[in-house]
Amino acid sequence: MQNKQYKKLLEQMIAIKSVSTDPVYKPEIEKMVDWLTDLFSEKGFVVKVVRNYGNPIVAADYVVNKKLPTCLIYGHYDVQPANLEDGWSTQPFELSEKNDRLFGRGVVDNKGQVLIHINNVFELIKEKNLAFNVKFMIEGDEETGSSLMEKFVSDNKELLLSDFCLISDGEMNIECPVIEAGFRGGFNSTLTITTSKTDLHSGIYGGAVPSAAHELTRMVASLFNEDGSVAVPGFYDDVDEVDATLKTNNLTIPFDEKDYLSIAGVKRLTLDKGIEDVVTQTGLTPTIQVTGLQAGYMGEGYRNSIPGKAMAKINFRLVESQDNAKVLESVKRFITKVLPDYAEFTLQMENPFRGVKLDLKNDEVNRTKNLLETIYGRKCFFKFSGGGLPIVTLFSEILRIPCVLVPLANEDCRMHATDENYSLAYLEKAMKFSKKFLSGEET
Ligand SMILES: [Zn+2]
């Protein structure tokens, strides 16, 4: 690894176990916040640690010249848990280098990636070649869902005020540079169906009374058409059409079906009728996914009782043009109509967030595309992602600034898993991109 300064800082960051999913690590979170505060303060940034929105948010501001545009760089310092016993081949909280890769928890998600930009901003300040005023916003609750971020962004518009934002999180697409173009939104929900006050003896009552287990499974089945698309009337009403340009873009993104199937461990794809590629399916088409089912007794042996209550956890993944509340209403109407009168149900919405389609026709996105194509020597694609990144929705809707999303990690980086790693070849290119981007180069 060429860049000694980067590596030294990354080593220190990885050593701090800033795991946000377990309160045991609170002191490490504080250590991380102090580390970032010192780092930015030493370089002359105005640093503000914002509390009361979950784990502290570090905001660091550097003004080169008031006349220059301001670039907001978002990242997160929290990481997923990691233990050697999970099967890591190196100590997860010690940065190590082997086989031309750096290993450690957070090495790509997101410490390593946000540090690329931090390090380059520092270098460019020294070289007097930083083309923007820079604001860093580094949060510590990304891995737990950033649930208080909406409030934080609304309450701190002034602090975050900037002309555009840059985010590098996630991985590239089979060696091809990509700019992320949007994310699905949606919500979680629990469907509870009740058919009796208590569970009933299946011998004495079986056949004579309704079963919540039967009603729930019937209901779940009726939510879907044979091809897997959603059978609820009105569900697709507000879905934007995928136009020809987008269709072509999606179809030409390099995709290896065999690899995809093997990574997922599934036998074949189940695309909705009329959809030709996975990106259009997951990035631009809504879905309902049943993520958990519960009814009756599943312990040792058999209890032989008819469940009076059955539950399904249902995850809604909706596109930007859909409205969470409206979709929930259409599903409720459908269930009310289909469910027999001897059963009752409840369905409530939790953790809703809106999908987002990013503005791709702006100068910063164009410049990014050109830079990526020069550095990687390959065509850069716009990619819609099926997952959600609520912060991007918030920046677009509350701050109303364009967001440039450039994932810079290798596809086999194993984020969230054992042996999270950053390929040095990818890292070198990422460094180059970040430096050119931040120094305002056009190609
Ligand atoms: Zn993550």
Keywords:
443 residues, 6-stranded mixed beta sheet, globular, 18 strands, alpha+beta, 4-stranded antiparallel beta sheet, binds zinc ion, single chain
Q: Secondary-structure map with pairings?
A:
Elements: H1 4-15, H2 26-42, E1 46-50, E2 57-62, E3 70-76, E4 96-98, E5 101-103, H3 111-126, E6 133-139, H4 149-155, H5 157-160, E7 164-167, E8 178-183, E9 185-194, E10 200-201, H6 212-222, H7 244-252, H8 257-264, H9 278-284, E11 287-295, E12 305-306, E13 309-318, H10 324-338, E14 344-353, E15 356-357, H11 363-376, E16 381-385, H12 390-399, E17 403-405, E18 421-423, H13 424-438
Parallel strand pairs: 3-6, 3-7, 7-17, 8-16
Antiparallel strand pairs: 1-2, 2-6, 4-5, 5-18, 8-15, 9-13, 9-14, 10-12, 11-13
Helix pairs in contact: 1-3, 3-13, 4-12, 11-13
The structure holds zinc ion (ZN).
CA distance, first residue to last residue? 25 Å
Derived structural class: alpha+beta
Give the overall silhouette.
Answer: globular
Radius of gyration: 24 Å
The number of distinct β-strands equals 18
Please report which band the strand proportion falls in: under 5%, 5-15%, 15-25%, 25-35%, 35-45% or over 45%: 15-25%
Bound molecules: zinc ion
Extract low-pLDDT stretches: none
**What helical percentage do the residues reach?**
25-40%
* Lateral arrangement of strands in the main beta sheet: 1-2-6-3-7-17
- Total count of helical runs of at least 4 residues: 13
Largest sheet: 6 strands, mixed
Mean pLDDT: 95
